Amino acid sequence: MFRVLGHLDVSEEEGASGVRGLRQRAVLGYILLHHGSPVTVARLEQALWPSDAPPTGRQVVYNAVHALRRAGLPLEKRAGGYQLGVSPDRLDAVRFQMLLARGRTELASGRWEAASRVLREALSLWRGQALADLAEQGLYWREMAALDDSRLTALEYRVEAEFRMGRHRDVLGELEAVVEAEPLRERLCGQLMEALYHSGRQADALRLYRRTRTGLNEQLGLEPSPALRELEHAILNHELRPEPASPVVPAPRAPAGLPAPVSDSFAAPAPAPVSASASVRSLRTGRHAESERLVREHAGIDPDDCDEIVAAKIRWVVRRALDSGDLAAVVRCGVIDLLAGVRNEETLRAGSLLLDRISQLHQAEAVSR
Fold first, then answer.
1. CB atoms within 10 A of CB 364
2. Is residue 10 a contact partner of residue 135, using CB atoms and an 8 Å limit?
3. 207-256 residue pLDDT tens
4. 279-314 pLDDT per residue, tens
5. Which of 206, 202, 167 is nearest to 189 (CA)?
6. Contact present, 331 and 320 (Cβ < 8 Å)
7. Which of 47, 65, 147, 348 is the most exposed place for a label (fewest CB within 10 A)?
8. DSSP 3-state assignment of 340?
9. Which three-class secondary structure state does DSSP give residue 125?
10. Phi, psi at residue 347, to the nearest 5°?
């Protein structure tokens, strides 16, 4: 096994325990981060010396590759670059990404317990910052940053699954620790605010919002996102309710190129593609027939679109409406059940507000044209 989710580590059975020295480890780490595609000597040289490579830089790279091969690593020359000739299942980062994708699918399908279990397994692969030993030596590439960000994303998805099962107190300590390390990551801050509120600590939730707002202002010159401001408003007015557990929704395979069925807001991820006619049919109460027409027109839905494509387009409109920041909290909480085709008083009310907002967006665009 080759491990990059923490200090670079190569298992003894590879016969490569002798991989030592910063240059060798950096070359190996960079190649592992690009597993599946050859890495040229020029890219390796730039990775080792991001600003200004020495005249001997290329030779240093060749020497590192030669040393890695002597240590028993199957480095192969392909398409003008070097690639590690091992199967993807022997790299912890690949396994993590596969588990993350599976956990996201379980979450989008409403299988909260399964999502939590799979995402826990994914997070258990981490032993610290990606390639932490190289980062300590001043090498920190955007691929390492992307991996570290994926770790936080996996945690956010798992917390969402725990919330759906009413386990706000169970994740409170973990959230407090990670927000202490990532104080400006708004989604995690929002989740901690929710956990605090549902644990009877409304004042602490509001203090956290003020601290986050101050940090964003002072360090980035930014205001909190509309979603975080709405969350603070809901906590102030005691309007925040635990997310109801939705029934499991079958998850047909989405066509290639469609956006992943996961929400961008603090609400639960959007469900897997469902029939658009089923989700809108639950709203046909009087004036909603006209709103349905506006939804279809605003989303650019064609008569020949299959159900999966229609659902993806509707999700895009929903995210756009939610990102506007003008919707009441009930919309954010109810829209996922709405798209799943669940009909109850809450989702009908949420759907009514949502469709009204989409109608406003449609009319505003028509005026601007």
1. 10
2. no
3. 999 999 999 999 988 899 999 999 999 999 888 877 654 433 333 333 33
4. 333 333 344 455 555 556 656 666 666 655 666 666
5. 206
6. no
7. 348
8. coil
9. coil
10. -70, -30
Q: Scan for tokens 């190569």, then name that residue.
A: 10
Interatomic CA distance for residues 245 and 248, integer angstroms: 9
Residue 66 in tokens: 């030669």
Distance, in Å, from the CA atom of 87 to the CA atom of 76, rounded to the nearest integer, reads 13
**Cα–Cα distance measured from residue 46 to residue 52, given in angstroms and rounded to the nearest whole number:** 8
Burial label, 245 (beta-carbon count in 10 A; 0-12, 13-18, 19+):
middle
DSSP helix/strand/coil, 320: helix
**Among 73, 61, 67, 60, which residue's Cα sits nearest to residue 32?**
73
DSSP readout, 150-215?
HHHHHHHHHHHHHHHTT-TGGGHHHHHHHHHH-TT-HHHHHHHHHHHHHTT-HHHHHHHHHHHHHH
Q: Token pair for residue 48?
A: 């080792």
Helix (H, G, I), strand (E, B) or coil at 102: helix
In degrees, rounded to 5, the angle at the alpha carbon of residue 185 between the alpha carbons of residues 180 and 190 is 90
Q: Among the residues of the chain, which ranges form H helices? A: 22-33, 41-48, 57-70, 92-108, 112-124, 132-136, 142-164, 172-181, 186-198, 202-215, 226-236, 276-281, 288-299, 307-323, 329-339, 345-368
Q: Count other C-beta atoms under 10 Å from residue 309's C-beta.
A: 18
Q: How far apart are CA 77 and CA 86, in angstroms?
A: 13
Do the Cβ atoms of 327 and 321 come closer than 8 Å? yes
For residue 74 the two structure tokens come to 């199957």
